[in-house]
Amino acid sequence: MAHQEQYFKHKDGEYVPASKPKNHPQKLGDIVVQMIKVIVMFVPTLVLEWYKLLFGKKKSIKGQIALVTGGGNGLGKALCLRLAREGCKVAVADIDLIGAQRTAAEIRELGLKSAAFKVDVGDQRSIEQLKIEVEAALGPVDILVNNAGLLAMLSLSEGTTQDVQRIVDVNFTSHIWAIRAFKDGMMERRRGHIVAVSSTFGIVPFGRTVCYSATKFGVRGLMEGLNEEFYMNGYANDIFVTCVYPGFVATRKEFMEYLVQLGCRVPIHTPDEVADVAIEAVLRNRCEVITSPLYMQIMIKLYALMPNTVTRLLVGMFIDKVPQLTVRKEG
After folding, report:
1. Cβ-Cβ contacts under 8 Å for 128 (sequence gap 6 or more)
2. Could you tell me which of 239, 224, 228 has the C-alpha nearest to residue 188?
3. Is residue 266 classed exposed, middle or buried when 0-12, 13-18 and 19+ CB atoms within 10 A define those classes?
4. 65 within 8 A of 141, measured Cβ to Cβ
5. pLDDT tens per residue, range 275-300
6. What's the longest Cα–Cα distance across the chain?
7. Around Cβ 221, how many Cβ atoms within 10 Å?
8. Helices in the chain by DSSP H: which ranges?
9. Which of 75, 114, 122, 211 suits a disulfide with 271, CB 3.0-4.6 Å?
10. Model pTM?
11. Cβ-count burial of 9 within 10 angstroms (0-12 exposed, 13-18 middle, 19+ buried)?
12. pLDDT at site 310
């Protein structure tokens, strides 16, 4: 940590340029051995992993405690109910306490334990307080679902400074605070699953949602990095991560009206449909899942390999009026 202090406590004039490092040539024999090892293991490892994903036995999460942020409405509510049907005790957290209470009441009607909590996920202190309250009411969290987010359809030139900061805090930074709050307990118990709701805009960016897309790309990088860190720290078989990439979900009325304005022909899914796919991925310990139809999953996966001119043609297949939305009406 001492070597890193310069990055957190800047002092003028203290920068020391690095000297050119000495090259450490690797022995050709060592490189060849490692290449042979990779070639020999590649196909059987790939086949085994695909077999486990497609045909492996699903794990049971019955009796585990799940916390869902943004659980009061929309996709968050659907995730809460789906987890309850798997036998989980569910902590429903939302800035809309009334919505969270309604979701918790529906879960209790299913005969399962649930409690509602008010939280502002963009505030790190609020998340720390949430941890205290959830553990006191239900116990330590086994499944953390970071679902809360702002569906902010803003270009980079729209919104105030505070609006932009709020989007970043709620859609991205909140994931960091929540993971930091709950992962240590999972590591102590050597059991846990962390789920993040990103978006297909976290794989394929969209020019009228620059800030939103940026935060969803950030969630994607966070979860991939977290997965590797658990592996490096020896928790690969104990703590799992799943990043969910929903397409368009029928949630808020104003969002659906915006899709009509766009002339959108992309399939629209219900929150229940997305929740079913997401929790099925959790039960199979999948690292990521795109909830769109197969043909769109393939297109999304190929996005990074295609030139911009080609991807723009493909976007035009599904959305009519992107070029015309350079200037939008207020509201």
Report:
1. 177, 181
2. 239
3. middle
4. yes
5. 999 999 999 999 999 998 887 788 88
6. 67
7. 13
8. 5-8, 28-55, 74-85, 97-109, 124-137, 161-168, 174-189, 210-232, 253-262, 271-283, 294-302, 308-318
9. 75
10. 0.85
11. exposed
12. 75
Phi, psi for 288 (deg, rounded to 5): -155, 155
Buried-state track 301-330, b at ≥16 Cβ within 10 A, e below 16: eeeeeeeeeebeeebeebbeebeebeeeee
Task: Catalogue the active-site residues.
Answer: 212, 216
Measured at the CA of 83, the angle between CA 167 and CA 177, to 5 degrees, comes to 35
What distance in Å separates the CA atoms of residue 213 and residue 204, rounded to the nearest whole number?
Answer: 8
State both tokens at 129.
């307080």
At 194, which helix (H) or strand (E)?
A: strand 192-197
3-state DSSP call for residue 144? Answer: strand
**CA R_g for the chain:** 22
Q: What is the Cα–Cα distance from 103 to 211, expressed in whole angstroms?
A: 30
pLDDT above 90 covers what percent of the chain?
56
Return the half-sphere exposure (C-beta side, CA atoms, 13 A cut-off) of residue 162. 0
In this prediction, what percent of the chain has a pLDDT beyond 70? 83
**Phi-psi category of 297—alpha, beta or left, where left has phi over 0 and alpha has psi -120 to 50?**
alpha
| Sequence-distant (≥ 6) Cβ neighbours of residue 223 within 8 angstroms | 194, 196, 198, 241, 242, 243, 287, 288
Closest C-alpha among 81, 296, 285 to residue 192: 285
The CA distances from residue 192 to 144, 235, 239, in Å, are 8, 10, 5
Q: Which residues pair with 319 in a beta bridge?
A: 264
